[in-house]
Amino acid sequence: MSTDAAKPSRREQILTAAAEKFARAGFHGVGIDDIGAAVGISGPALYRHFRSKDAMLAELLTGISDRLLFGGKHRVDAASGPQDALDKLVRWHVEFALHNPALITVHMRDLDSLSDRDRRRVRESQRHYVEVWVEVLRHARPELDRPRARAAVHAVFGLINSTPFSAHLDTSAMSRLLRNMAHGAVTAI
């Protein structure tokens, strides 16, 4: 059995290294030579994979938004009802945040470094993802109006997305804590 299928492509390796570097030093604090060195190639060799450092950032941030949206929709479609859908969304977002702290950090810090076009694309995917949650929350809690549900969703995202700065427990314990807190937050409204 070959393990080549599980091995990340060079492009994925570069994006992972870029995310880690951007998370530590900020987008403007990292050069292409830094990213290249992290994956064992020269900085200019990165241009075979990306047209610029800006293109790397755009792919990272549009990718995170698209992955969350796709994953969220998939989980809702697989749910047996509103409460199950809400639980699946919470679990999805918590696990995503815990396994992608660099991406969460880069998104929070460097979104404004994107071009207007790429930033609009990220924001559009984010709005759609929020609306997936809003619809599920309103089905689970029919008494909630749309503005209150949307505010709750954004608050839950803030809680979950704080993990790069608050993960003081092992991943399993932090996951349980965040899931419990997120569920508590949406039931407290």
Automatic annotation (TrEMBL):
<dbReference type="Pfam" id="PF00440">
    <property type="entry name" value="TetR_N"/>
</dbReference>
<dbReference type="Pfam" id="PF17932">
    <property type="entry name" value="TetR_C_24"/>
</dbReference>
<dbReference type="GO" id="GO:0000976">
    <property type="term" value="F:transcription cis-regulatory region binding"/>
</dbReference>
<protein>
    <submittedName>
        <fullName>TetR family transcriptional regulator</fullName>
    </submittedName>
</protein>
<dbReference type="InterPro" id="IPR009057">
    <property type="entry name" value="Homeodomain-like_sf"/>
</dbReference>
<feature type="DNA-binding region" description="H-T-H motif">
    <location>
        <begin position="31"/>
        <end position="50"/>
    </location>
</feature>
<keyword id="KW-0238">DNA-binding</keyword>
<dbReference type="GO" id="GO:0003700">
    <property type="term" value="F:DNA-binding transcription factor activity"/>
</dbReference>
<feature type="domain" description="HTH tetR-type">
    <location>
        <begin position="8"/>
        <end position="68"/>
    </location>
</feature>
<dbReference type="InterPro" id="IPR001647">
    <property type="entry name" value="HTH_TetR"/>
</dbReference>
<dbReference type="InterPro" id="IPR036271">
    <property type="entry name" value="Tet_transcr_reg_TetR-rel_C_sf"/>
</dbReference>
<dbReference type="InterPro" id="IPR050109">
    <property type="entry name" value="HTH-type_TetR-like_transc_reg"/>
</dbReference>
<dbReference type="InterPro" id="IPR041490">
    <property type="entry name" value="KstR2_TetR_C"/>
</dbReference>
